[in-house]
């Protein structure tokens, strides 16, 4: 493996830990406390705060800010201009840094362009947050979430395809993976 690469316009503060083969593109700022895994990609104009943990093979598209108290596990995808928050009730004149609420995005989850993730919630493994959705509560593994506030409209396969809605058919039509799907859960068999 090769060391990470950083574009000449990017800023990586001393103390940041970045894994091998990670690419940091134009106008990115990674703060000193950030912990980033291997084989990640950070598109143009991304910000990564101090209290941020990012796993391996994470893709962060342009114009995403990953503020303090956010954890992204392995294989997470953050679409262009999606937003994380870290304070539930911000006011400019009130310092609430001691009130940050941790947000965890579990392995393999995808967050669509312009989606908003309100702080203090967990997005389950391989969940799929649609473009423009606003996440205001925890998201189940494999859930397909859309709207404002985001609501579950189906389930997603690990390969990224929507699972059939049929009550007796729980196999992905693209890859064949079978799932146990109940009223409010989905898990691979």
TrEMBL record:
It comes from the Bacteria. GO terms for molecular function: acyltransferase activity. The keyword Acyltransferase applies. InterPro entries: Hexapep, Trans_hexapeptide_repeat, Trimer_LpxA-like_sf. Its EC number is 2.3.1.-. The keyword Lyase does not apply. Keywords: Acyltransferase, Transferase. CDD domains: LbH_WxcM_N_like. PANTHER family: ACETYLTRANSFERASE, ACYL-[ACYL-CARRIER-PROTEIN]--UDP-N-ACETYLGLUCOSAMINE O-ACYLTRANSFERASE. Belongs to the transferase hexapeptide repeat family. This is Acyltransferase. It comes from Vogesella oryzagri.
């Amino acid at each position: 493996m090769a060391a990470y690469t950083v574009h000449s316009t990017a800023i990586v503060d001393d103390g940041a830990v970045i894994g091998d083969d990670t690419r940091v593109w134009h106008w990115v700022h990674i703060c000193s406390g950030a912990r980033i895994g291997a084989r990640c990609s950070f598109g143009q104009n991304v910000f990564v705060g101090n209290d941020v943990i990012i796993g391996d093979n994470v893709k962060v598209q342009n114009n995403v800010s990953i503020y303090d108290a956010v954890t992204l596990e392995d294989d997470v995808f953050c679409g262009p201009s999606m937003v994380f928050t870290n304070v539930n009730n911000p006011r400019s004149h009130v310092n609430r840094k001691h009130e940050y609420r941790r947000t965890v995005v579990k392995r393999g989850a995808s967050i669509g362009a312009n989606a908003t993730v309100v702080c203090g919630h967990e997005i389950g493994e391989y969940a799929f947050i649609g473009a423009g959705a606003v996440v205001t509560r925890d998201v189940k593994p494999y859930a397909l979430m859309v709207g404002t506030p985001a609501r579950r409209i189906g389930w997603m396969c690990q390969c990224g395809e929507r699972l059939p809605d049929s009550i007796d058919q729980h196999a992905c039509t693209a890859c064949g993976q079978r799932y146990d799907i109940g009223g409010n859960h989905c898990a691979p068999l």
